[in-house]
Give the backbone structure.
Amino acid sequence: MTEANKGYFTEENSADVVISRIAETTDPRLAEVVGAITRHLHAAVKEIEPTQEEWLAAIKFLTETGHKSDDWRQECILLSDILGVSMLVDAINNRKPSGASESTVLGPFHVPDVPELPMGSNICLDGKGHPMQIKGRILNTEGQPLSNVKIDVWQTNDDGFYDVQQKGIQPDFNLRGVFRTGDDGTYMFWGAKPRFYPIPDDGPVGKLLGSLGRHPYRPAHLHYILEAEGYETLITHIFDPDDEYIHSDAVFGVKESLLAKFDLIEDPDRIAKEHPEGPFYEVEHDFVLAPAS
Amino acid sequence: MTEANKGYFTEENSADVVISRIAETTDPRLAEVVGAITRHLHAAVKEIEPTQEEWLAAIKFLTETGHKSDDWRQECILLSDILGVSMLVDAINNRKPSGASESTVLGPFHVPDVPELPMGSNICLDGKGHPMQIKGRILNTEGQPLSNVKIDVWQTNDDGFYDVQQKGIQPDFNLRGVFRTGDDGTYMFWGAKPRFYPIPDDGPVGKLLGSLGRHPYRPAHLHYILEAEGYETLITHIFDPDDEYIHSDAVFGVKESLLAKFDLIEDPDRIAKEHPEGPFYEVEHDFVLAPAS
């Protein structure tokens, strides 16, 4: 509270007056967070100079965003996603040493306790889409292969849906699997070429996207969680660089290092040896885990 | 989209990437507002560096704030209020020329179409509290009295509640009135000395106030809306400067120019002439209206 104006509000001192009310006994981290939010929020309002009607429109938008959220739908997270905030928080919390693979957002479709499968298994249980072989190595930043790495993967089916979005339509655990590396640090399994898909866009966040001339699509990707003792857990995707939405992911999840070439294999020798049913896609991607800090 | 990274997200360019997605066909004001919000929001996140858990706590807080809002309760507005945002928007939209009375927030308890009463009426219909005479003049910035000014006033009763908060308990239109000035520009009516009262604090916003060591109270005040042809409508309060919360209004509504002395009149001559029932409070306050722009 400044002595000059006894804590009364003015347009000039607005943020200082609000922050001065935070009691000294407040949890220091909460005081820091609320102080920073207050300063940046007041700076935004001073720059925007909203009319009373615009302010009320913002209040209504936030209210509707809260109302749209329930046990199955989190519209506030979608808002964070489409404004790039979720990715920024992910980036801040996952700064990697040079050479280590980068992270991206977890997303809402991970399922715990998926059964562990032997290397080479096919996780595509509905038989839809283009068969795809996924393989590569898990290394440390010295380039050494890592054994006993738990690889948790999940992806959409050829209709662009995860199994949990189509319970009763897709088989349980369709396009999900857990694998574990051996001494050579390699992995290989079969899936289906993933498809782009929209984030839920029938709520206030989807309406905002539309008003901004933005589409709701995420480019095709596979999700990975890699866990190994002594290393930082890596939550990431690999993306199809040829997807039409690769430069415009609705949630900003794409990083250049996460692009993985999806090649169509038509070589008769390889088809005969690896997939007699016919041509298949192949994606090969190595991951490098950072040492635990 | 910068050519260098093809629009892919990095911690450094995060806000630019998000803003670059706004289509050129977007309504220019919406593009400006979303651009400013994105920049300030990313700046706040970069300063705060929230953990994933803190980010999720913020998501939950916003969700609960939306859920608490319904036709009768607007928790998002309360959040705006306690962060000083409502007052800042009010200040930006009501910059007054030198000498004109200042505005403050409307609040949620205004009622339209209140009956017009003759000057000198008593708006205190429940007989509670300390009788109070409220009077003054309505002037223009040249100091001339203004006639035909519509004065719309409302206040809490001695229990700290507005009539609309106690329907069936307080008489309808208790402590509300509309008056109209004559040629001398003066006004006078009787009410009851107002009381401090809490904003609704049983929701997430009240919980946040508690965590910040802040109380939920607004110091005692009377609300005014003054309307006159050729002048800017003035929405304001006058405050009791002796109220214990005068330096800590939970919604930052107090401005120094809105303090009005509430005097206890014990002079037997004035009591005999003006209020034979006994001592009374007197508050005298002039308002100066700015010319319509």
Remarks:
- The two ends of chain A are 42 Å apart (CA to CA).
